[in-house]
Amino acid sequence: MESLLGDILSTIRLKSAIYFKHGFCGSWGMEAPNSPYSQFHLVTSGNCVLEIGEEINSLEKGDIAILPHGTPHQIKATPDAVCIPGQEAFMEIMKGDQPFPGKETSTQLICGHYEIDRELSHPIFEELPPYIIIKSADYGRYDLIYSMFELILEEMTLQKPGFDTVIIRLAEILFISIIRHYYLHQASEKLNMFKDEMIYQAVNLIHQELANSWNIEKLAHRMGVSRTLFIERFKSAVGETPMKYITRWRMTKARYLLKKTDLPLPQIGEKVGYFSETAFNRAFKQMCGVSPGKFRQQLKQEEEKSTL
Questions:
Q1: Do the beta carbons of residue 198 and residue 233 sit within 8 Å?
Q2: Are 14 and 168 in contact (CB under 8 A)?
Q3: 224 DSSP assignment
Q4: Rounded CA separation 162/12 (Å)
Q5: In angstroms, how far is the first alpha carbon of the chain from the final one?
Q6: pLDDT tens for residues 81-90?
Q7: Mind listing the pLDDT tens digit for each residue in 114-144?
């Protein structure tokens, strides 16, 4: 049975790409504009700084920085280093050139991004801050993290049979590790289902049994608490009521199935907890603005336009 995070990541269609592993010389600096991707930087040797707006953060070997919402930033040797556009540096590196003059490597980075379908998002991603820095000393397993990045690089380079699946699975493991570490060790108690064991179990149950005809009484009974206490703790940990969360995830899952499968509409409705096609149509239209059939039709029209 798929875990909560596994279900979420497969639904939002997580993908990853590594731009490069490169050693930088001299007074180097790269500037990244706003991006639709969740960018990351792993420092594999030396040190550098990450500047986001007015905030400057020091990074050293083993530290990971991730920008979940693609926030503009600079990563550079020192706070006063001059930056060039990240795309320009990337193109030089891809050609085998050194974008910054110098004889000795001062810092080595692995840089890349995670890509998710923003239309199929989830509160645990929406509530993430502009950037997350996980220090090697706090995480404690730099060797494993580095090895996994190296494996992704190797799979991308050699492209053996099944390499794309291997990359996705390794990327999922890394992403889950980073997100889990953030919520368990850095995030506050508020809007944090990972720090309320009962609510985490309840949300996991909802994901595992999405087709169940859930109501507050059923969930509270399964968790062994009163209806009032369950609603209070759920809203505090998740940011919305249990029924609103269930409806929102059902519609997210329905949109995913409409995008990725050719299942008949009634079957999709049943998979997400609606055994009446009328009820499914009504709930979908209320949240998404169009009926499931119209949504699928619009997707097909967009695909046809993109192939012209």
A1: yes
A2: yes
A3: T
A4: 21
A5: 41
A6: 999 999 999 9
A7: 888 888 888 888 889 999 999 988 877 777 7
Of all residues in the chain, the percent with pLDDT exceeding 70 is 99
Q: What is the 3-state secondary structure (H, E, C) of 229-285?
A: HHHHHHHHHHCCCHHHHHHHHHHHHHHHHHHHCCCCHHHHHHHCCCCCHHHHHHHHH
CA angle 158, 164, 170 (to 5 degrees): 95
What is the DSSP secondary structure assignment for residue 81, as one 8-state letter? Answer: P
Question: Which numeric CATH code is attached to 4-185?
Answer: 2.60.120.280
Location of structure tokens 């097909």: 300
pLDDT > 70? residue 1: no
Is residue 65 over pLDDT 60? yes
Q: Which three-class secondary structure state does DSSP give residue 194?
A: helix
**Single-letter amino acid, residue 283:** A
Domain layout of the chain by residue ranges: 4-185, 193-302
CA 197, 200, 204, 210 dihedral sign is: positive
User: At 279, which helix (H) or strand (E)?
Assistant: helix 277-288
Q: Name the burial class of residue 1, with classes exposed (0-12), middle (13-18) and buried (19+) by CB atoms within 10 angstroms of its CB.
A: exposed
Query: Do residues 260 and 268 touch, judged by C-beta distance below 8 A?
Result: no
Residue 253 has pLDDT above 80, yes or no: yes
Type of residue numbered 192: N
- In CATH terms, 193-302 corresponds, of 1.20.1250.20, 1.10.10.60, 1.10.1060.10, 2.40.160.20, to 1.10.10.60
Amino acid of residue 177 = S
